[in-house]
Every structure is written in structure tokens, then in C-alpha cells.
Design goal:
Layout lengths: L1 E4 L5 H9 L3 E3 L8 H7 L4 E4 L7 H6 L5 E4 L9 H6 L3 E4 L5 H16 L2 H11 L4 H7 L10 E5 L3 H12 L3 E5 L5 E7 L5 E7 L3 H7 L2 E4 L11 H6 L4 E5 L8 H10 L2 E6 L10 H4 L4 E3 L8 H19 L1
InterPro entries: D-2-hydroxyacid_DH, D-isomer_2_OHA_DH_cat_dom, D-isomer_DH_NAD-bd, NAD(P)-bd_dom_sf
Pfam family, one: 2-Hacid_dh
GO molecular function: NAD binding; oxidoreductase activity, acting on the CH-OH group of donors, NAD or NADP as acceptor
């Protein structure tokens, strides 16, 4: 059987699939050519990340397709219900990238509170001529310890983020329509651990209470953070989105950054991805990454081997 890993797969995933008797194709096929490629090469399994979309047209055009796999959590680039109605298995790897995404959240938080994103732009330009000026410009940093982190969506990634926040000595609050409460266990290097219960509260109260807000939700029909929501937040709040583009109104965010209502933002995903708006890309108060939340070697190894295990189980 053949597996098309159109957005790539780790070496460990390839080896596991080949050991299970599968041929793995890692050729990058253009979106409009996926259906033709699948049919011409008798592909049984298509694996994607976030770039390739498997919609109704591809599903209808590929009657031999047995599995569609998503290397990651959200499956908004796949017509999941329709695929299942056609007898196609749809799989993903919800647990594999949680720690990697959570660490990126904190990379953005640390960058924001200590101005690293802007300092790294300006030090090469002015570090030798305006050292004291830059030192003064970036002198008003704040600590994360003792501050309140509001987590919107306390699923696997939200919980991984909560563990890191608790380890830093932050207060953690959460809002989640589907998870009323969750026990979060912080495990230390020596085997000791501490467990605490996080009880979901209203989104409105989270916005008012949090010093920093991080979003961990699937794609939405509308904005979670819009102009009205921003107005209810603390002055000087920091906002991070490593979830999905389109959950923050970027026009309203820019206005709030310019006014000082929002101190900084960290964005890994964008409304107009893969071509973010230039006003977002050039803003000095935004820490930027190109949708790399799960892009660590460790996460990709876990994703690859987990996908391989599911495929082998389903088709063996």
C-alpha cells in the first residue's frame, strides 16, 4: 500500500511505515494536482499538515482513498464528516505536539515582556551607534512570575501551557465551553509532581482578569478576540495566538497595540495566511513566527510514529 505524505513526515515515521510494509511517497504535490496524483499512483493514504487541504472535491475524485491523516491537532483543512460518510478513516495526532506549541507560547511571552522581538531587529542596526538609547528603550520589562495567564481553551495544548505557567509561578485561569474543570499535574525532573485543579470560568471574566492571554481553540466562525473583547481587557495586556488564524480581529488588534491597550502580541498564525498583512508583519509590538508551533524535531518524531501506528493498525 502507498502513503502520500504531502506536507512531509519525519524519518522515524517513514521507517515505521516501511517496516509495516507501506511505500511512503514524500513528493510535494500541488493542491490542484493531489487528486490526479492519488489516482495515478494508487495511493491509499494521504497525510497532510496544515498546508494541503482535503476537501469534498478530492474525496469524491479519489474512491480508492482509505485514510486521510493530519499530522497535528486541528483538522479544519479536511472535510472530516464528509470523508467519514464515504467510509474513509480520518486520523490525527492530538497529543504529539502539545509541549512544542506550549513552549512557543512562552517564547512569544518572554519575547514580549522583554522586547526581544524588537531588540533583535534594532540591535544590528543601532547597537553600535545608539546602545544607550536602545538600553533605555527596552528598560521597562516585566516578569511573568506572579502574573495571571488566561488560557482560552484548556484542552491538551492549553494544559501543557498551564503546566509551564505554573512552573514559572504564574496564576493560571481558563475559559472552555466543553471542559468545566481539569486536573493539571506538573512533573519535575526528579519524579516529584504537583497536581492542581483549574476550573473554567467565563470568557468575559478571563478577559478582565488576565495579565496575559493565550488562545488554544480550533478555527471559529467569528472572532473570539474582537474590538469589544479588547476593550474589556486590562490595560497593557499581552496576547498570544499559536492556535488558528481568524480567531483574533487583526485590525482591532493593531488599533489596540497602537493605543497601548495591548502591550504586545505574539502571533504564529494569521487571518490571511500564508500571506499575512504587512501591517502585522511590520508592527514593532508583534512577535512573529510562520506557523511553527509543532515544528520541533521531537514533535515531528512523535507525530510521524503516531500516524504510522494508527495507519498500520487500521490497514493491517
Amino acid at each position: 500500500m502507498k502513503v502520500l505524505a504531502n506536507d512531509g513526515i519525519s524519518k522515524s515515521g517513514i521507517l515505521a511505515l516501511e517496516k509495516g510494509g507501506f511505500e511512503v511517497i514524500t513528493t510535494k504535490v500541488a493542491q490542484e494536482q493531489v487528486a490526479n496524483f492519488v489516482n495515478e499512483n494508487n495511493v491509499d493514504v494521504v497525510l497532510v499538515r496544515s498546508a494541503t487541504k482535503i476537501r469534498k472535491d478530492i474525496i469524491d475524485a479519489c474512491p480508492g482513498l482509505k485514510i486521510i491523516g493530519r499530522g497535528g491537532v486541528g483538522m479544519d483543512n479536511i472535510d472530516v464528516d464528509y470523508a467519514k460518510s464515504k467510509g474513509i478513516h480520518v486520523i490525527n495526532t492530538p497529543a504529539s505536539s502539545s509541549e512544542s506549541v506550549a513552549e512557543l507560547v512562552f517564547a512569544h511571552l518572554f519575547s514580549g515582556v522583554r522586547f526581544l522581538h524588537d531588540s533583535n531587529r534594532n540591535m544590528p542596526l543601532e547597537g553600535d551607534s545608539n546602545f544607550d538609547g536602545l538600553k533605555k528603550a527596552y528598560a521597562n520589562g516585566v516578569e511573568l512570575r506572579g502574573k495571571t495567564l488566561g488560557i482560552v481553551g484548556i484542552g491538551r495544548i492549553g494544559q501543557a501551557t498551564a503546566k509551564m505557567a505554573l512552573g514559572l509561578g504564574m496564576k493560571v485561569i481558563a475559559a472552555d465551553s466543553f471542559i468545566p474543570s481539569v486536573d493539571v499535574t506538573v512533573t519535575f525532573f526528579d519524579g516529584q509532581s504537583i497536581t492542581t485543579t483549574i476550573v473554567s470560568q467565563s470568557l468575559e471574566s478571563l478577559f478582565k482578569e488576565a495579565d496575559f492571554i493565550t488562545l488554544h481553540v480550533p478555527a471559529q466562525n467569528g472572532y473570539i478576540v474582537d474590538e469589544a473583547a479588547l476593550a474589556t481587557m486590562k490595560d497593557g495586556v499581552g496576547i498570544v495566538n499559536c492556535a488558528r488564524g481568524g480567531v483574533i480581529d487583526e485590525v482591532a488588534l493593531i488599533k489596540a497595540l497602537d493605543s497601548g491597550k495591548v502591550a504586545f502580541a505574539g502571533l504564529d498564525v494569521f487571518e490571511s495566511e500564508p500571506k499575512p498583512e504587512m501591517t502585522i508583519l511590520m508592527h514593532p509590538k508583534i512577535s512573529l513566527t510562520p506557523h511553527i508551533g509543532a515544528a520541533t524535531g521531537e514533535a515531528q518524531d512523535r507525530i510521524g510514529t503516531e500516524l504510522a501506528s494508527q495507519i498500520i493498525t487500521l490497514l493491517s
